[in-house]
Amino acid sequence: MTLRVAAVDLGATSGRVMAARVGPGHLSLKEVHRFPNGGVPVGGSLFWDVLGIHREVLAGVAEVARTGELHGIGIDSWAVDYGLLDRDGELLGNPYSHRDPRTRDVPELVAKTVSVQEQYAVNGLQQLPFTTVFQLAAARGTAALESAHTMLLLPDLLGYWLTGEVGAERTNASTTGLLDVVTGEWSSELARRLQLPWSILPPLRDAGSVVGRLRAEVAADLGLAPDVPVVAVGSHDTASAVVAVPADSGTSFGYISSGTWSLVGLELDEPVLTEEAREADFTNEGGVDGTVRFLKNVMGLWVLSECLKAWRDRGTPATDLASLLADASTAAPLRTVVDINHPSLLGPGSATDPMPERVVRLARDAGEPLPQTPGEITRCILDSLALAYRRHLRTAARLAGRDLEVVHVVGGGSHNHLLCQLTADALGVPVLAGPGEAAALGNALVQARALGADLPDLAAMRALVRETHDVRRHDPRPGLDWDAADRRVGPATA
User: Fold this and answer.
1) Fewer CB atoms inside 10 A, N or C side of the chain?
2) What's the pTM?
3) Are 307 and 378 a contacting pair, CB within 8 Å?
C-alpha cells in the first residue's frame, strides 16, 4: 500500500508541513504549508514563539488532512532547545532560543565542576555554549527551573500537545549533553554533579516508535479520526536528513546537512571518544537505527542569510540570492577567507552591528584583503565554508579511520551550486548534491516504516531515495591552492 503522512519539518528561520507519499518504488513530497520562524527578542533575551509554531503545525496538518487520507504525523526540528512543564503539564514560559547570549560563559563555569574530559567521556559532544546542559546550567536558581516537573525538547513538546504523551526521542536527546552516548540512557550522575534536577528528564524513546494517538479534541479540530498516530521520527532534523542521504551501501561517504547550520561528518556504528577527537571538538550524536553521527557544527548559511537581510533592509541593489551568487562566481577565488565558525557570527545581525560588517571586521583582524562589494563578501563566505567543510571532513575521516570517497550534500544548501562546486574543489572528491528536502524525506521514511512499509533498514530507505530523486554531481576542479588558504584561516574555532 502507499502511505500518506504529514512530515513537519521545522527550521530556525522557517517551518514547513509536507504531505508525503511512500510506497513501493514511490517517495514524494508536496509542501502544503510554510511559515516564517525566528527568535523573538524580549527584554534583552531571545525566545521562540512556540505557541505560534504549534498553531502553524496544526494549520499544516489540517491542510494535509483536507487534501487526502492521513496515516501518520511526524515532527523534526533543530536541536537543544526545550520547554519546561509544571506538575500540571502546563508550559512555564516561552522557550529560549539557542542564540540567546545568556550561555556565553557557561561552559567555562561548568568545566570547573565537571571537566571537559569528563563531559566528553559521557556525552561525546562538541563544546558549544548553547547545548541544552549549558542552557539548564544558566537557568539554575530561576523560578522556572525550580518549578519544572518535565523538560521537553521542542519536537517532543509539540508531540505532547498533540497526544498528551511525554517522552524524549533519542537522536535529539543525544544533543542535550545529558545522554550517555555509550549506553543511550540519561546520565543522572552528570545532572547530579551539575546540580540539575535530573528528575525533569522524560522517558526515552527510539525513532520509529509510536508516540501516541491524537488527543480527541485535537483530532476533532483537525477533522481527523482520533486513531491517527504521531510517530517519533529522527526528531533532530539532521538525524532525519541523514536517513535520506542517497548513499550506496558499502561506499565510504561523508555528508553535509546544509542549511542555517551545516552539520559536517560521517555515519558510524560506534562513537569516537578519543582524546584526539575531544581536542578536535567533534561531536557524537545519535542517529536512526543506533548509528552515530560523528560530526562538526559549522555556522552554515546563517551568515549569508543574515547578510541578505541586512542588504535588503538597506535597499542595496542586486542583492537577491541569485544576483549575489552570480557576482560571487566571478569574484577572485580564495582572495579573502575567514574563520566562518567565529563566535562573532553566531548572533543575529542588528542595525548597529550588521552581519556584512562583522565579516569584513573578521577579515581585517586576520590581515586578509577586505571584501568591498556584496558579491565579494558572498564569495568570502562561500570560500570560507568550503574550507571549513574540507578541514572537518578530512579530520573526521582521520579520527574515525575511514576513507572519504564521496560527499553528499543534502538540505537547502544542496541548491547552492557554487558552494557545492567549491566544496568538491576543496576536498578533491566528488560532491553529490540533493535531495534538498532531505529532513522531510527522512521523516516520512521513518514514519512509513513504523506504519508497516517494507523498509527494513537504512539501506532500503536510501535505495528508495536514489530510485525516486535526482542528484547533481560536482567533480573537483584543479588549480587552486586550498592548502595555503587553509593555513591563512589558522586554527579552527570550536
Assistant:
1) N
2) 0.93
3) yes
